[in-house]
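Query structure, 217 C-alpha cells:
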C-alpha cells in the first residue's frame, strides 16, 4: 500500500503527474481542487457552501481548512482508498497537515513528492492550460497542445479554461503557495518523507523521476 502526496506550486504539473501515477500504481486519486470544481458544478454529493467555495477559488484564495479537511477525510474513507491514495493539492497549509496527521493517523503518508519548478515559467504554464470537460485530460497550448486546436485528442470535446487561470488570480495563487504551502516542505522534511523532483523536465522525465523516488522508499 502506498499513501502519497504531491506538493507543487499551482501550474507545477501536479494534475498531469497525478493522472499517470494513479493509473500506474492503481491507487485512488484525491484532488481537492477537482472535488471543489465538482461541488461548484453540483456533481459532488453532499451539502456545501457552494457560493463561498467559488468565491475563494475565483479570488485565488484557499478554501478554509475545516471545510477542506472534512471533505478530504470523508473521501479517504471510501473503499477505493484501501489500496493506497495520492493526495493532489492537499495539504496546502501547516494547519491542514497537522489536522490530517491527527485525524487520519491510520493513513500516514509514505512519501511526499515535491515538484521543484522555476517560478518564471509558471504564469505561462497556468494561463496556457486547457482541459477536457469530459475526460479531464490536461493540455497546455504552449508546451503540450492537442493535435487539433482546442479539441481533446481522446474524445473530440472542446477544451475549456479554468475560471481561476486568469493572470490576476494566478499571481494571487502563487503568493498563497509561497506563504501558506511552502512551510510544508520543512514539515515533511523533518518527518523524513519528503522527496524532491526536478519538475522543469519533460512530462515523461518527471514521471520517471517520481516513480524512482517512490520505489526507492
Ligand atoms: P487546484 O486545482 O489544486 O489548483 O485547486 C484549485 C483551488 O481549489 C485552489 O486555488 C483553492 O481555492 C481550492 N483548493 C484546492 N485544494 C485546497 C486545499 N487543500 N486547501 C484550500 N483550498 C484548496
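Result returned for the query:
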Amino acid at each position: 500500500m502506498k499513501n502519497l502526496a504531491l506538493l507543487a506550486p499551482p501550474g507545477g504539473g501536479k494534475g498531469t503527474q497525478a493522472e499517470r501515477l494513479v493509473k500506474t500504481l492503481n491507487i485512488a486519486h484525491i484532488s481537492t481542487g477537482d472535488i471543489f470544481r465538482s461541488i461548484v458544478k453540483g456533481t459532488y454529493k453532499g451539502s456545501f457552501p457552494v457560493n463561498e467555495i467559488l468565491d475563494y477559488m475565483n479570488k485565488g484564495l484557499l478554501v478554509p481548512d475545516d471545510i477542506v479537511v472534512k471533505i478530504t477525510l470523508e473521501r479517504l474513507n471510501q473503499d477505493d482508498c484501501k489500496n493506497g491514495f495520492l493526495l493532489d493539492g492537499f495539504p496546502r497549509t501547516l494547519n491542514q497537515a497537522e489536522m490530517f496527521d491527527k485525524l487520519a493517523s491510520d493513513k500516514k503518508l509514505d512519501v511526499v513528492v515535491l515538484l521543484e519548478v522555476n517560478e518564471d515559467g509558471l504564469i505561462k504554464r497556468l494561463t496556457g492550460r486547457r482541459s477536457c470537460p469530459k475526460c479531464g485530460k490536461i493540455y497546455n497550448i504552449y508546451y503540450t497542445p492537442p493535435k487539433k486546436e482546442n479539441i481533446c485528442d481522446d474524445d473530440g470535446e472542446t477544451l475549456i479554461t479554468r475560471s481561476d487561470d486568469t493572470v490576476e488570480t494566478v499571481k494571487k495563487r502563487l503568493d498563497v503557495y509561497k506563504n501558506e504551502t511552502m512551510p510544508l516542505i520543512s514539515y515533511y522534511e523533518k518527518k523524513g518523507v519528503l522527496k524532491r523532483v526536478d519538475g522543469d523536465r519533460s512530462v515523461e522525465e518527471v514521471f520517471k523521476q517520481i516513480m524512482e523516488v517512490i520505489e526507492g522508499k
